[in-house]
Amino acid sequence: MSAAGVTEHGGSPPPGGEPPRSTLTPPPRVWWKRLGPDERRWLIVAFVWCLVLFSGMYVWLGIGEQQTPIESYRITTSDFAAEADTYIADRQVGEQDGVPVVEPIPGEDVYLVASQFQFRPILRLQRDETYRLLVSSTDVQHGLSLQPTNLNFQVLPGYLYVIRVTPDETGEFPLVCNEFCGLGHHVMTGKIIVED
Amino acid sequence: MRSNGDFEDPGAEPTPWPQRVLDNLWLLLVVSIVVPGLLYLAWGLWELAELPRWAGA
Amino acid sequence: MAATANAPELRTCATTGFRVDESGRRLALAYAVAAVLMLAAGGVMAIFIALQRQGLPISDDWWYRLVASHGATMLLFWLLLFEVAALYWGSTMLLNARMRAPRVAWGVFGAMLLGIALAQWAMFSGNATVMFTAYPPLTAHPLYYLGILLFAGGVLVAICLFFANVVMARRERTYEGSLPLVVYGFAAAAIIGVYSLLTGAAAYLLLFLQSVGVLTEVDPALYRILFWGIGHGAQQVNLAAMVAVWYALIGLTLGGRPVNEGLSRFAFVLLIAFIHLGAVHHLMVDPGLGTSHRIMNTSYLLYLAVLASLIHAFSVPAGIEAAQRERGIGKGLFGWLVRAPWREPGFSSLVLSVVYFGFVAGVSGVLMGTMQLNMLIHNTLFVVGHFHATVVSGTTLAFMGISYYLLPLLARRELVGTRIARWQPYVFAGGVALLTLAMLAAGQMGVPRRVADLGYADAPVGVTQFGEGAVPLMMTLVSVGAILAVVGGVMYVWVMVRTLLVGERTDAPLANLALRFGPTAAPPPAPASELPHNGLKGRWARFEAPGTYAMVLFFLAWFVVLYVVAHFNLAQSWPVG
Q1: Which of A111, C108, C467, C500 is most solvent-facing, going by the fewest CB within 10 Å?
Q2: For the complex shown, is ipTM > 0.90?
């Protein structure tokens, strides 16, 4: 027992009762108690929402047309560079701003190379056809950002990322790099052209 | 004046087990390392290790 | 009750009634001061970064160096230094306990300052323009990695000292029963910090070894998995510390206590157990991981860590409401909030932080972490908007709020600039709100992050995307918000510095703030165990916090709407997968 007026903990000296409880003072000896009715309701509602959020991703897996690409492989940067160059040489139909333009066959694998500081080749695709983009980097990490449809992916050297894409509109669409890749990060761009 | 002396009262009921679990900082530390260590780190590293090599175009 | 019979008596603080260990007080003060100085430095950098967009002539190279340092200075140095101050305060004064191994603690402080100096030198000299993410194969000077490792290692030791303080306090019975909720929250932050710092240190150690030639390369995917343990983990340390500070502000400004201790503590435990799984949020559009790993981890396993935040979203406002109703303040559903002490900087920063964190920061975070939604925003300014909403208008604002009480107490000086302090949270919150909302909008429009020139003037393949439509307006609003936020930051630093330098020395600081805690505060009129009837009808009559209940339901509706809209947005993109 301590003398009245001496505080063991922070808080007002009790006028005959215990010091006022606070977030800053130890709780009562037994603090595990029933939830109030509002707390209990909210806990249930919140937990149900958590379950909805969780299953939402599975639901979207079933019904959505936009899915996270998963298919990936290991590949050396030199192998990727060599295969990409072969592909580009094979399918090149022109050049723009010093970058080769390539016209892939619908449904096929299309190499897209990210490097400091350019995406190559420029792709000329057909609307409503599906292409398998084989994306990797020959040097550092990059970010593939397709605008304005706003689809964004990470590009790692040593890893091949297979991104199946079906352009559903015609036009010219910029690619920008959105992963900091060095002092030329802000000149790193590319392009996808979609025609009927 | 009622002090917190009832903590030492042997006749007082034991604290509820959820309280004792929540109060056990060492248990919580172990959980905080084991759960992500297995579900995020170990599983993730295993997935990377199992990634197939690209066999060519 | 048993006192610390063998140790000499500790001085009792006249304002709070806590027993004060001098080395604990000095260490906490040193860390808090260092933290504020880092905040000021980061804020200065923010001005340059923001104004470069509006034409301030800074070279691209320098813009990138500033972005790199701004990130490390704010995310690592400001926040973690302040958190160590909070850990020391919480494990000594709040427990009436002694600081263990103060000499070790001071040595660690010195090492951390050295680490900061090394890292800053490396960044400012252009030797470490790799951003705080430091993704390999980008490489920096070995001293950069070493500097960060020193700093992170120091935090780890400080965490150990925190636990030592708590264990010894329990053993010496300087407090009885369970830890105060605020200290429990700090303990949660400390526990979460252990795993974060270990994986982060492992990641940076690999880079360090590569930078000195011991390793030839560091696998980029492996690094990312390891790094994001601290990349995201440190933010969860900030989250737990912020929530603990919210509870502390309820105690200081309202004399409040949690409506249900078990519920709040359970929420901290959910965070401790599951929060680190969210590191995968940064890997959602990476090659390498499978679908199940992504879904299980991004959801924190059934969104249990989000449940933790949803619990605090109720418990924190409920604590405010209960404290007000207990004193008979305010009528009806929301009177308690209207008639709350909005002039008290601790209260206004508390509410602004809670509201903004919930409605903007938290919701945007969960949306970004939703597996398929992540594609829409990865590496865009949306991410930057989100984390400014969390750590600036959430954590930093809360830390500012409590330092109006903490620094005068630690420094034993009267607060100087109370009038500025009363306005500061509003100015700062307003600036950051504008900044972050504009960033979120710009990110939705595809604006990439960390790009020095959004006009792509020097790019061979031109991009005019971001010079059109609403993007330039958004970027202007970003700059305006940044300036306003910096003004709010200057107000805060000004008050802190003046208090520390010219504040009147006193044994009982905070006389000019309406503190509802400590021997000088009037206790609540109602008995501590029961709330008066809230005056409402029907089932609402039995609620402990009916106003809060209404607010969280509204918040949930907001959440649901945004979730649906985001998926609708996603469906407009090209089919992909």
Answers
A1: C467
A2: yes
